[in-house]
């Protein structure tokens, strides 16, 4: 009798509130190898990522500078506005999150 255990789903942590969930349940912001920071709707873009669980947590992380720390880069106000716009345009992943 084969007693294999099912693979565990890796958990990610929201940088703002500390909530943990699966990768697909959180929103990912990524710093590409070229240094460009953007919203990653697929969750698969190469680079250093930071996760938030909602638009409210994005705003809180933005205010506290937690995205700068998690992505190991300095984000300007224009960068943060652009990322917020990218997140709001991606309604397919954001529906029902808030």
UniProtKB/TrEMBL annotation:
Residues 12-83 form the YlxR domain. Pfam families: YlxR. InterPro entries: YlxR (IPR037465), YlxR-like_sf (IPR035931), YlxR_dom (IPR007393). Transmembrane segments: none annotated. It comes from the Bacteria. NCBIfam families: RNA_bind_RnpM (NF047356). This is YlxR family protein. It comes from Ellagibacter isourolithinifaciens. The lineage of its organism: Bacteria, Bacillati, Actinomycetota, Coriobacteriia, Eggerthellales.
């Amino acid at each position: 009798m084969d007693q294999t255990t099912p693979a565990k789903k890796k958990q990610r942590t929201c940088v703002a509130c500390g909530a943990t969930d699966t990768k697909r349940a959180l929103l990912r912001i990524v710093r590409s190898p070229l240094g460009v920071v953007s919203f990653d709707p697929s969750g698969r873009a190469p680079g250093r990522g930071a996760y938030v669980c909602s638009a409210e947590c994005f705003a809180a992380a933005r205010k506290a500078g937690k995205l700068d720390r998690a992505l190991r880069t300095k984000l300007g106000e224009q960068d943060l506005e652009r990322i917020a716009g990218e997140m709001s345009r991606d309604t397919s992943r954001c529906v029902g999150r808030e």
